[in-house]
């Protein structure tokens, strides 16, 4: 059986991974669109019936109606950049696939691709990655602001329940806790997206004829994607354990009856179990989303290394070839071997 040259093997792997990433991103866009529509629908309903809704809760007309309108707008602004960035990512990856797939004789380093067809999609994606970076920072700051404002709003809505409101020290403690959780997320997102930006910028420069090796950027991006896999895996494990705990709580005999007997809660055992089952289903769906993100991260790492192997293959014997070449198309397979130097 004839052994294919390493660049040709990488090109075939790149094509397959690009197809799978494109399908995965389409599914992810659909899921985020569904979540956005559900969230906006709930906020629109609360906005439409806000007056009677809060009167039933005994809060009177203290809550301004525009609060729900503001929440509707902020939710739309939250989901829209993600959807546009994911759409731009899909177009950039498929465009890069088309460019690398149209390469000619790898041994001579000739390429039949058209960088002008690649430039627009890649530059658009890089722009949206920058928006994503700053958006993560803005979301963290806005989230802390909303938490702080909610404390004051609860005192306005429920003036007779002062013992339930938080004082100054408690508010500062909650904000510091939120800050401690937000900073790692912002830093990790910034570094991961920055490495992806540098990889696509290096690939575009190479396609334009600039002698820039793509391998260093692809290796750096692959390293951060592995780190993202670890973080996503921990998140997935937490979601699954949380879902298991919720199911155990829902199955405990007599616990729902205890809630029903307590007049402060005021709901039946059936409602209690329904809420628990719904919460468990939501956690499991979130786990599926995390699993999809992990699969996309694994395939993206292999895609970046394959693109680097193809584009750097024609730079001569002094080219910076990838240290390893992933010859397996499975997202969890990590059996690597050096490129064939013959």
Automatic annotation (TrEMBL):
Q: Identify this protein by name.
A: DUF975 family protein
Q: Where are the transmembrane segments?
A: 21-46, 66-89, 131-153, 173-196, 217-250, 270-293
Q: Key word Transmembrane helix present in the record?
A: yes
Does the keyword Membrane belong to this entry?
Answer: yes
The alphabetical list of record keywords is: Membrane, Transmembrane, Transmembrane helix
């Amino acid at each position: 059986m004839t052994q294919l040259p390493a660049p040709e093997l990488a090109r075939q792997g790149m094509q397959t991974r690009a197809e799978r990433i494109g399908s995965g991103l389409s599914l992810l866009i659909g899921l985020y669109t569904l979540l956005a529509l559900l969230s906006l629908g709930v906020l629109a309903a609360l906005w439409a019936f806000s007056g009677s809704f809060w009167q039933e809760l005994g809060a009177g007309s203290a809550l301004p109606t525009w609060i729900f309108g503001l929440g509707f707008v902020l939710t739309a602004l939250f989901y829209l950049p993600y959807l546009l960035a994911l759409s731009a990512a899909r177009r950039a990856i498929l465009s890069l696939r088309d460019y690398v797939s149209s390469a000619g004789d790898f041994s001579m380093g000739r390429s039949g691709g058209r960088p002008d067809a690649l430039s627009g999609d890649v530059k658009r994606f890089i722009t949206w990655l920058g928006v994503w970076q700053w958006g993560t920072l803005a979301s963290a700051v806005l989230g802390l602001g909303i938490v702080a404002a909610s404390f004051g709003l609860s005192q306005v809505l429920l003036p007779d329940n002062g013992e339930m409101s938080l004082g100054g020290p408690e508010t500062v403690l909650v904000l510091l806790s939120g800050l401690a959780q937000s900073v790692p997320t912002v830093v990790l997102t910034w570094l991961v997206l920055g490495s992806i930006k540098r990889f696509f910028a290096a690939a575009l420069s190479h396609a334009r004829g600039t002698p820039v090796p793509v391998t260093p950027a692809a290796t750096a991006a692959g390293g951060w994607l592995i780190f993202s896999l670890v973080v996503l895996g921990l998140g997935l494990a937490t979601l699954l354990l949380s879902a298991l705990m919720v199911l155990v709580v829902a199955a405990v005999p007599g616990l729902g009856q205890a809630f029903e007997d307590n007049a402060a809660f005021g709901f039946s055992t059936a409602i209690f179990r329904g809420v628990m089952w719904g919460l468990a289903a939501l956690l499991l769906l979130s786990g599926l989303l995390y699993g999809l993100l992990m699969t996309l991260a694994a395939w993206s790492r292999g895609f970046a290394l394959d693109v680097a192997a193809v584009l750097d293959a024609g730079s001569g014997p002094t080219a910076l070839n990838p240290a390893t070449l992933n010859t397996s198309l499975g997202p969890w397979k990590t059996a690597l071997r050096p490129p064939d130097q013959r």
